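Data availability (excerpt). The following record was deposited with the supplementary files.
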Amino acid sequence: MSDHPVSGNSVSGNSVSGNAFHGSAAFQVGDHNTQNIHHHITHSPPTHTSSTTVDPLDITADELARVVGAQWQEEAGLRRLLEPAPLPVRWRVSDRKVAGRVVGATGEGAGRARFGPLPGVGAITRERLRDGGGLRELHAVYGGLASGRLLLVGAPAAGKTAAAVLLLLDALVHRAAQVAPADRARVPVPVLLSLDGWNPGEETAVEWAADRLGREYTLFHGKGGRARARQLLEQGRISLFLDGLDEVTGRLRGAMVGALETAPFRLVLVSRAREAVLTAKKARLGGALALEIQPVRAADAAGYLLNRLPAEPSTAWRALTGRLLTEAGPLAPDPLAAALAGPLAIALLRDVYGDDDPVDELLDAARFPSAAAIENHLLDHAVVAAYTRRPGHPRPRYSATTAERTLRYMATRLTQEDTRDLRWWHIPGWTGRRPRLVAVWIVSAVVCGPPGVIMAWSLSPSLPIAVISTLSAIAGGYGIALQFAARSVPQPLSSAGWRDIFTRRTVGAGIAQWLFVGTALVLLIPLLVDHSPPYWFWYLVTLPLGFGEVLATGRGYEILSRAPFLSVGVGRYDMVREDFARPSVADTRSVSPRDVWRHHIGLRLFLGLLTGFALALYIGPMVAWSTSWPRGAEFALTAFLWTGATSGLVGNLAVATALTALQLHHEEGTPVRLVHFLEDARRRNLLRATGPVYQFRHARLQERLAAEKPT
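Predicted structure:
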């Protein structure tokens, strides 16, 4: 990960040394070190306790640093970026036409710099950039660049995102361990985001980033969360590392670069070099400094591989590393050295070949005449290698055959849709909806229909009534199935968290509605009838009206609108479409796709059943009081089942995805627990999580899996 040495227990320049860090966020980046991440915030005691107060934004920033550190520490571990003696990161100032003059970025002779150097980091000059450098120097550029605008470019699979992740972790180390507590507020918290989903024509960079932070970190959920995120961005207390510029369309890339021009925070933008050049023809990031990630040297690749082998490597490994050590550099004509010029191929090589495997077969010029042939061979075996049991590791939950079949199917679907983002809530659109429609129809009619038929028979025990009620149950089940089948069309995951639905305002409106209607009935009913129920009865049956008011005035509108007889009078709701659900958890952390899945299926089902119970509570007691308690129970059960099914099942994309997974299991042989499989594939470094979506670890892996399976 880092190419600077670590020794002793000192801090010098921009390097950090020592064996451990302790604090609100702690990371170690050198060799033979440990990490201690504390899941709480620590603050230095104020000098004057009587007059000094802690800025709430300081607490938020420190907690964000902890959460981001834990997130990317785990991700870096999955990507194997933190192992001993990692591959060095090397860069030089790019000579491609992707940015302006270097002096425009360093601010030399141009007066006041846009961003002052971070505490503990000196100002960057052209002289310091002349010879390029490694990860330590990259952090110095990040922290000392006057423009605060850094472009990381390079060839495909050159390790640009890996360099950005390692830079982010180094920036967190610097903030946590190398800066005095009094200066920590001047050091921004680095956050890595993907640029997908941003339309610069509709929202500014700050608005978009604040929204993304609110979606991806529970720290910014709830009342005021988005406002806190916006404050941190506007004050430059967050720096954004933006990946995926090369994955959006050309016109949109130019608009994004233009919108980032005036962003008030430090910025690191990651892109493939070719797309960066094309973007620069339409829009350039003012004051940006473009650094190009360099290919891995053959000797570095050999050293990296040897460090992970036994002290006495096998003959095959000695032959392969010996070939690398004899090469002059990464641009040598040898196919092996050219193939291993990128971190992706090196990591794949170690994944695919064990200590005793015949890795020297890659030296066969007849089988592997080019670097592309070697890379394709490694990509073709990546999935099998990830799901092959290794000594000391638990047995994989899925067979290599099942995993490869599933990932090939998904890669093909994503390639057909011209996207890299695997949104689990779009999976229902991947296959025909008819089998799910029939299944939901049958289940709804069988489960929800009998209570209604029994209720109708008890009211009028005759054959026509039985037939009509049975046909009504079948028709009702079909109606539910039609609404459920509509979820096969790709759409936003329009849901919200508990705090978005049960806010003080909505709960207050619900209580007011309940007390008003209940009190009105208590006062009016005795004037209209001689034998009215007791007071408590009217407060009981009007409770559902208060609950309906909570949903109608909050973001539970869609759940309520699905419920029979409860969709009237909810026009006051201010429609806010969320891109995905927002879990509300006790601790602060980043939100993963699996978190979104679990939250959505749990919240929607619970609120749907609660809505059914509300209608049952409304109808059942009134029927029971006017007729009999058994009949009231029949009405209540019927209302509960039908309303719960329509409001909780129909609008639940997580349920639709689960049923689609069953269908795909039958049609394509994919796992039944598809979301669980996706998370397992991420753990095996075949997928990565970007906010609420999954992506293949690299575009080349998706392309290769989507191609025709090699024979």
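Summary of structural features: The CA atoms of residues 197 and 208 lie 9 Å apart.
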